[in-house]
Amino acid sequence: MGTTTPPRTLAEALRARDDESLAGLLRARPDLLSPVPGDITQLATRAGTRASVVRALERLDRFALQAAEALAVAPDPAPYGTLLGLLTGDGQDDGEQRDDVGAAIVAALPGALGVLREQALVWGDDDRLRLVRTARELLSPSPQHPSPTGLGPTVAEATAGMSPGRLQEILAAAGLPATHDPVSAVAALTGLFTDRARMGELLDTAPMEALAVLDRLVWGPPYGEVTPNPTPPVKWLRDRGLLLPVSTRTVVLPREAALHLRAGRAHRTPEPRPPVVTAVAERDPQAVDSAAAGQAYLAVTTVEELLKHWNGGGPVVLRAGGLSVRELRKTAAALDVQEPVAAFWVELAYAAGLLASDGEADERYAPTPASDEWLEAPAQERWVSLATAWLTATRTSGLVGGQDAKGRALSALGPDLDRSAAPEVRHRVLALLDALPAGTAPDPESVLARLRWERPLRGAAATEGTTDLRSRIALWTLNESELLGITGRGALAGQTRALLTEGPAKAAGLLAPLLPEPLDHVLLQADLTAVAPGPLERPLADMLGTLADVESKGGATVYRFTPGSVRRALDAGQTAADLHSFLATHSRTPVPQPLSYLIDDVARRHGHLRIGAASSYVRCDDEAVLGEILADKRSAALRLRRIAPTVLAARADPASLLDGLREMGYAPAAESADGDVLITRAGAHRTPPRSAPAPVPEGPPVPDTTLLGAAVRAIRAGDDAATVVHAQKDTAAATPPGGLPRTTAAETLVTVQAAAMTGSTVWIGYVNAEGAASQRVIAPVRVEGGYVTAYDHTADEIRTYPLHRITGVAELAE
Q1: Looking at residue 460, what is its pLDDT?
Q2: pLDDT in tens, 643-666
Q3: What pLDDT does 730 receive?
Q4: Residue 784 to residue 800: CA distance in whole angstroms
Q5: Quick one: pLDDT at residue 717?
Q6: Which of 106, 393, 89, 107 is nearest to 264 (CA)?
């Protein structure tokens, strides 16, 4: 193809591109690489398939999409000036089209057209722009699928099949000369609608009611229903071809007439410039970082509390997977948050690989072995791991409580919560926040408007309800960012900017000085409470959590000591002396006397009764206590009987017997078969090693530079094999493009041996073990033992071919 010859097909246009441009196409549309096309023709065919074109259109910004929509209603091919006119109008719209918007369109159209060309949606020179056929079909108007521009069919399309007599009637009513040629009649009517002066004169004679009908149809949809006896205004329009029949009850405003009424514009509101993200507040960046750091620490402690709550084995996994509503409600109560927020923390811990199902017969959720390593890490590193997991996770907790396409409820940790667009939307929202000055909180509506411009909602994307999924994910992102400490008071934190641009280590380093230092003390009070004025060191927090119950949280945590909480510590193996020593060591205030009395009183009674298995038994050296128990009516359900002066037997199991006697006010202790007191610590149930759930990608991954280079070389080599002129050894006619070369076994052997000696490249036909024939461009390296070892330019690797499977060989012409 000569340099001045315009391309006749998309394949020719792609063939004329350089390697960098082809790599740009494959980078923008990675679905074209699965598998790597054999040649340029295959690449062009695949680029025109419906699924691939739909995916490419859905990734266009609004103005690039508007340019494609304008080309879909323009003549094919269309010059650049026609496309520009459809976007800017003809300037005769009474000032509706502002001059600054027109200038913005003129400035932005080359870039939008460049994007369409790069993605092989548009091809051809500026004087002959062509939209690929599949895209034109998707964007062209029809009664079932109206055009996004709101334009109807052309006069020629709308009058196809109309009788010549009816065409003559329309010409006569419009004041046009009669012609018996239908083609000339259609051309005359089209010429009238595209002539501004004559069209203006025709509309000046229209009744006001007819003009009102046109006003309702001009910006779409262009179709309307009529009765068998239409009103005079509709009849006036129909007689002059301004409304053309589609069926017996439907009429349409032809495209040429609509464009005249629109002053030549394909879109009512062209949007060449992206909406600006506006600010609602500007705050001190240091205050923003501090607020985000405080929330980040709260996020870490909340996940830690969740792991502790499920430490001994969490909720049962539903048969269909996920948490039941009741278990989610219980978890929310334990974390002291609302249920949607609890679902977010549960899903975040799951995405970070800290929670998983244990895979047992009675399957439960439990912390993973990785959670133990996470708990030992510094707080800043724990936050970085949570934030990184959130950024890349495709599981979307905002969907919990909704329904799937089949009307089934979506549960936390259940299936069907993956949305492949979530990571891209999160990164895009944070990128918009990052572009604002430090400390600036954006207006959420302006963020949504910007995202809608960058990815306009199309029909296939509206499957999640009236609000498009990307906007919902963006709103969830803003809320979750505040919960997680990604933002502070609505503005992006400095440590988050570092995480996005410089990596986890830098973010952790910036966050560490902003986190509160863990304390090694509490303040004991006379009302049997302890106040932790800040976060506590982990050993202190664990021990205090066993010895006391959390009464309230906030800037300071209040713990309350009760007989039950003290008994819990004694059950865990602590003695009264240990508890007194612990409180004296870690309290900045003297240990109150009521608290000392409480510990001594519970410890004195603890273990006075002994529970074992008979099914179970009660043992006590004080016979009077056993008699008191037997005499108590509340013990009837335990079905006790005395089997010795100091022993009572029960049919209840030991755990039930322990609970029953404690409810009666006693403080029994369990004992082993050897008579020793059993120490009951909270069991640490762990799942087998589990990896975090893999994100569900949104389409094929974007290939790296190495893969792109190899793919382009393979496509070029395959194209050479399919299109290059091949020189035959004999005087016979050259092998036609696409056919396999045919030579004898002796000629094949001689040719590949010569090529191996001279280092030249040859073209071969090859049939594999499955009988599939293909063409290869190879550079033979070694020929021996009935095999030829060569560098295969088509596959971009060294391969070995059996000589008996080579159908023939030909030299490549210079």
Answers
A1: 36
A2: 888 888 888 888 888 888 888 888
A3: 43
A4: 11
A5: 78
A6: 89
**Where does 646-793 have alpha helices with state H?**
654-663, 705-723, 745-758
Q: Residue 378 corresponds to which tokens in the numbers above?
A: 């510094």
Stretches in the chain below the pLDDT threshold 70: 1-4, 91-99, 141-146, 457-467, 612-614, 674, 679-683, 721-740, 794, 796, 812-814
CA dist., res. 113 & res. 103, Å (int): 16
**H runs (alpha helix) in 405-443:** 422-434
Q: Letter for the amino acid at 66?
A: Q
381 residue type, one letter: E
Look at strands 491-492 and 762-767 and give their pairing. Answer: unpaired
The 3-class SS string of 184-216 reads HHHHHHHHHHHCHHHHHHHHHCCCHHHHHHHHH
For the stretch 417-468, pLDDT in tens is: 999 889 999 999 999 999 999 999 999 999 999 999 998 865 434 334 435 8
Q: For residue 418, list its beta bridge partners.
A: 395
Selection from 308, 226, 164 nearest residue 682 by Cα: 308
Q: Round to whole Å and give the CA distance between 281 and 440.
A: 6
Which of 492, 330, 464, 482 is closest to 402 using CA atoms?
Answer: 464
Start-to-end Cα distance in the chain: 16
The pLDDT tens digits of the residues spanning 734-755 come to 444 446 678 888 888 888 888 8
**Under a CB-based contact definition with an 8 Å cutoff, are residues 212 and 197 in contact?**
no
- H-state helical runs in 29-174: 40-47, 50-58, 62-73, 80-88, 99-118, 133-139, 155-158, 164-173
**Alpha-carbon torsion angle 629, 633, 638, 643, nearest 10:** 40
In this structure, are residues 171 and 189 in contact, taking their beta carbons and an 8 Å threshold? yes
Backbone φ, ψ for residue 351 (5° rounding): -65, -30
Compute the residue count for the chain.
814
